[in-house]
């Protein structure tokens, strides 16, 4: 039997889920809680295999409750069951250690299947949540490319983004034109871009350089 604890501040939600799970041959609801603190206390007392965790609750929210439960009862697997899919809620919940993330729009059957999969060690994610995480990982990997640049290459990149020519960069940094060209070549290779314009877009995109004068990004890159 998969022992489940339901943590949600809406009684009707708990009742609906509990009623469906109660007739499953392989799932047992061993407790319910209406706030994060109570959920934490019951998790430590009852030792559930899976915790269905709401995010927005009084006393203690689902993210903090998840952190505390997994810290003190790491055998549990937490499934976030929420109405929210905003970035500011998705990332903290996953970072807190939640194994799965599903929405309350899921059917009772889908929730039961998510419990079974999560209990087996499989992550269950709403497609939109999965896409958000993939994009986030891509962005983190992308910005990490900047860390590979030397301090001088970063200076050159900022000047490229400001629309300066190689000769202007050489004059401002008091280096030779040949040296600037070498730096530019290295920057393009490290950032994995084809030309100066794309390097400038990278700089604006990641906040390395802010567009000036109220012009939009396209206006700046078109002038490079």
TrEMBL record:
<keyword id="KW-0238">DNA-binding</keyword>
<dbReference type="InterPro" id="IPR039420">
    <property type="entry name" value="WalR-like"/>
</dbReference>
<dbReference type="InterPro" id="IPR058245">
    <property type="entry name" value="NreC/VraR/RcsB-like_REC"/>
</dbReference>
<keyword id="KW-0597">Phosphoprotein</keyword>
<feature type="domain" description="Response regulatory">
    <location>
        <begin position="3"/>
        <end position="119"/>
    </location>
</feature>
<keyword id="KW-0805">Transcription regulation</keyword>
<dbReference type="Pfam" id="PF00072">
    <property type="entry name" value="Response_reg"/>
</dbReference>
<dbReference type="InterPro" id="IPR011006">
    <property type="entry name" value="CheY-like_superfamily"/>
</dbReference>
<feature type="domain" description="HTH luxR-type">
    <location>
        <begin position="142"/>
        <end position="207"/>
    </location>
</feature>
<dbReference type="Pfam" id="PF00196">
    <property type="entry name" value="GerE"/>
</dbReference>
<keyword id="KW-0804">Transcription</keyword>
<protein>
    <submittedName>
        <fullName>Response regulator transcription factor</fullName>
    </submittedName>
</protein>
<dbReference type="InterPro" id="IPR016032">
    <property type="entry name" value="Sig_transdc_resp-reg_C-effctor"/>
</dbReference>
<dbReference type="InterPro" id="IPR000792">
    <property type="entry name" value="Tscrpt_reg_LuxR_C"/>
</dbReference>
<dbReference type="InterPro" id="IPR001789">
    <property type="entry name" value="Sig_transdc_resp-reg_receiver"/>
</dbReference>
<feature type="modified residue" description="4-aspartylphosphate">
    <location>
        <position position="54"/>
    </location>
</feature>
């Amino acid at each position: 039997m998969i022992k489940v604890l339901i943590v949600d501040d809406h009684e009707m939600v708990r009742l609906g889920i509990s009623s469906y799970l109660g007739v499953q041959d392989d799932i047992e609801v061993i407790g319910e809680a209406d706030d994060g603190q109570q959920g934490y206390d019951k998790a430590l007392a009852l030792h559930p295999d899976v915790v269905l965790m709401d995010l927005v609750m009084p006393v203690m929210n689902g993210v903090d409750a998840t952190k505390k439960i997994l810290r003190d009862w790491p055998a549990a697997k937490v499934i976030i069951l929420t109405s929210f899919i905003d970035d500011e809620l998705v990332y903290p919940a996953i970072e807190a250690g939640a194994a799965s993330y599903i929405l309350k729009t899921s059917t009772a059957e889908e929730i039961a299947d998510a419990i079974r999969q999560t209990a087996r060690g499989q992550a269950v994610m709403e497609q939109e949540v999965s896409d958000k995480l993939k994009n986030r990982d891509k962005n983190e990997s992308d910005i990490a490319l900047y860390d590979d640049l030397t301090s001088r290459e970063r200076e050159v990149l900022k000047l490229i983004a400001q629309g300066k020519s190689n000769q202007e960069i050489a004059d401002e940094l008091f280096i030779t034109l040949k040296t600037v060209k070498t730096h530019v070549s290295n920057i393009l290779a490290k950032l994995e871009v084809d030309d100066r314009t794309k390097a400038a877009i990278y700089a604006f995109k990641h906040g390395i350089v802010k567009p000036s004068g109220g012009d939009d990004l396209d206006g700046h890159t078109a002038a490079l």
